[in-house]
Write a structure and sequence with these properties.
RNaseH-like_sf; Transpos_IS3; single chain; Nucleotidyltransferase, domain 5; RNaseH_sf; globular; alpha/beta; 5 strands
Length: about 200
């Protein structure tokens, strides 16, 4: 190599470094402390688009609601949260990804008016919202892949029936093999014991 004026390039060992310090991801400490939201896409039998907004209580693992439509915007997100708020207290924190429906002015105004903080996951990091992503996987596996939806109304009926079954009949290992409804009932007074 030396005679021809060539040299070997020596590579120095490279260590991967974290771009940022990893922060612990907020999880619910009691019922209605933190809710997680995300979207799932599917299709009707004729190929028309179907979008689902899922809202989960991260402490009890209850599915608080699934909004089914063809085009869901931040207006529908706020309407869904208002509907859930008629049945239970609002959370202190909402966890979402960076989708335009969540990052828009409409939802920002909605959470500000109610004193709710919003926590956006890091871009390209679905593990930041792992509980909701796991739920959406179950929803796809147990409901969306198992059913043909003939119409939007048919989809709403079948998905709501599955949501009720999920909350009331399906035990979870993370909840000590209780259903989300059983766990929520057992932990109903926990919020009053938490420091504010």
């Amino acid at each position: 190599y030396r005679e021809q004026g060539l040299s070997l390039r020596l590579k120095r060992p490279h260590r991967n470094k974290s771009a940022q310090r990893r922060q612990p991801q907020p999880q619910g400490l009691y019922p209605n402390h933190v809710w997680g939201m995300d979207f799932v896409s599917d299709a009707l039998f004729d190929g028309r688009r179907l979008r689902l907004l899922t809202v989960i209580d991260l402490f009890t693992r209850e599915c608080l609601g699934i909004c089914v439509g063809q085009n869901l915007r931040s207006t529908e997100v706020a309407e869904m949260l208002n509907t859930i708020a008629l049945r239970r207290p609002l959370p202190q924190l909402l966890k979402t990804d960076n989708g335009s429906e969540f990052a828009g002015k409409m939802l920002d105004k909605w959470v500000y008016e109610r004193g709710i903080r919003i926590d956006f996951s890091r871009p390209g990091t679905p593990t930041d919202n792992a509980t909701v992503e796991s739920f959406n996987g179950r929803l796809r596996q147990e409901c969306l892949n198992e059913n043909w939806f003939m119409s939007l109304e048919d989809a709403r009926c079948k998905i709501e029936a599955w949501r009720i079954h999920y909350n009331q009949r399906r035990p979870h290992s993370a909840l000590g093999w209780m259903t989300p409804s059983e766990f929520a009932e057992k932990s109903a007074g926990w919020q009053n014991m938490q420091p504010t």
